[in-house]
Design a protein that fits this description.
Distance between the termini: 58 Å
Helix content: 55-70%
Strand content: under 5%
Number of helices: 17
Order of helices and strands: HHHHHHHHHHHHHHHHH
CATH architecture of the largest domain: Orthogonal Bundle
CATH class of the largest domain: Mainly Alpha
Oligomer: single chain
CATH superfamily of the largest domain: Hypothetical protein af1432
Shape: globular
Number of strands: 0
CATH topology of the largest domain: Hypothetical protein af1432
C-alpha cells in the first residue's frame, strides 16, 4: 500500500519552471555571444547599449573602485574599449544576476547572491594562477547556482525548510531539496539552461558543480573547490552541520592556485566582502 505524502510534500508548491521570470535578455544574449566564434567587442557593446538600464549599471561599475580606471568613463563604447570583451562580458553577467534578484531581495536570495559572487571571485583568482581563462571562471561562478535562485524564488517556504533542516554536506543538501522541493538545485539549473537557451557549456557548470569528477572542463574546473571554499569562509546558503575549514579545502585546488590564496582565511574573507560591497554599491 502506498504511503501518504509527508506534510511538507503535501503543503509546499511544486517546481514549476514555466512560472519563473526569464533571466534578463541582455545577459542571456551576452552569454550566447560568449559561445560564438566570430563575436566582436562591438557586438557586445551594441547589445549593452540597446538596454538603458543595463548601460547605466555597467557605467556605474566601470566608474567604481572595483575597476579603478584613472579617468571617468562616460560611454559604453569607452567602457568596452577599456575593459575588453571578456571582462565586459563578466560584468554584464554580474549585472544580469543582480537585476534578476532585484525584487523581492529576500535574506535567502541575498545569501545566494553573495555565495555566487564569492565563488566567482575565488574561481577567477584560482584560474588566473593556473593560466586558465579567469573571466570564464568568474562567469561560471556567477551562474553556477542559478538553479538554487530559481528554487528560492518559486518555493521560498519549501527552501526555508531545506535550510532550516541543515545538512551533513552537499549530497545531503541535494537530497533534502529533492524531498522538499521535488528537484535539487543542480537539476533545476540544468532545466533553466535549456529553457533560457544558454550555451551548452552551462549544463555542466550548473548541474555538476558539486561533483568534481564530472564537472566542467577548462577554466570552470576550479568551480567545485571554489564553491566549497566560499561556504567555508561564511558565504554559504545552506547550514552544514560539520562545516569544513579553509585549511581543509585549500589543498583541493591545483598547486598554483593554492599559492595564490593567503594562508589566513580571514584575509580572503575580507577581500571578498570588500569586492561584494563595491558591486552592491555600484
Amino acid at each position: 500500500m502506498a504511503t501518504a505524502p509527508s506534510k511538507a510534500l503535501a503543503t509546499n508548491p511544486r517546481w514549476q519552471p514555466e512560472s519563473l521570470p526569464p533571466f534578463p535578455a541582455v545577459a542571456v544574449k551576452a552569454l550566447n555571444l560568449m559561445a560564438g566564434t566570430e563575436t566582436s567587442l562591438l557586438d557586445l557593446c551594441n547589445l549593452i547599449r540597446s538596454d538603458a538600464a543595463f548601460s547605466t549599471e555597467i557605467l556605474r561599475i566601470a566608474n567604481s573602485p572595483l575597476v579603478a580606471f584613472s579617468k571617468n568613463i562616460t560611454s559604453i563604447l569607452q567602457a568596452s574599449m577599456l575593459l575588453g570583451f571578456r571582462r565586459l562580458r563578466s560584468v554584464v553577467i554580474t549585472v544580469g544576476l543582480k537585476a534578476y534578484l532585484a525584487e523581492p531581495f529576500t535574506p535567502l536570495l541575498h545569501a545566494c547572491w553573495r555565495h555566487s559572487l564569492a565563488c566567482a571571485i575565488i574561481a577567477e583568482r584560482a584560474a588566473q594562477a593556473c593560466s586558465l581563462d579567469k573571466e570564464t571562471a568568474y562567469t561560471a561562478g556567477v551562474m553556477h547556482d542559478i538553479g538554487r535562485v530559481a528554487l528560492i524564488t518559486s518555493m521560498p517556504q519549501a527552501y526555508e525548510q531545506v535550510v532550516g533542516r541543515g545538512a551533513d554536506g552537499p549530497a545531503d543538501l541535494l537530497r533534502a531539496e529533492r524531498e522538499l522541493c521535488g528537484i535539487d538545485h543542480c537539476q533545476a539549473g540544468r532545466v533553466l539552461v535549456a529553457a533560457w537557451g544558454l550555451p551548452e557549456a552551462f549544463l555542466k557548470i550548473t548541474s555538476c558543480h558539486h561533483d568534481p569528477e564530472h564537472g566542467a572542463p577548462g577554466a570552470a574546473s576550479v568551480l567545485p573547490p571554489s564553491c566549497r571554499l566560499a561556504d567555508s569562509l561564511g558565504f554559504g546558503v545552506a547550514n552544514y552541520r560539520s562545516p569544513r575549514s579553509y585549511a581543509d579545502i585549500l589543498p583541493e585546488f591545483p598547486e598554483p592556485a593554492r599559492n595564490a590564496f593567503p594562508a589566513n582565511g580571514e584575509q580572503l574573507t575580507q577581500e571578498i566582502a570588500n569586492a561584494i560591497a563595491l558591486i552592491e554599491s555600484a
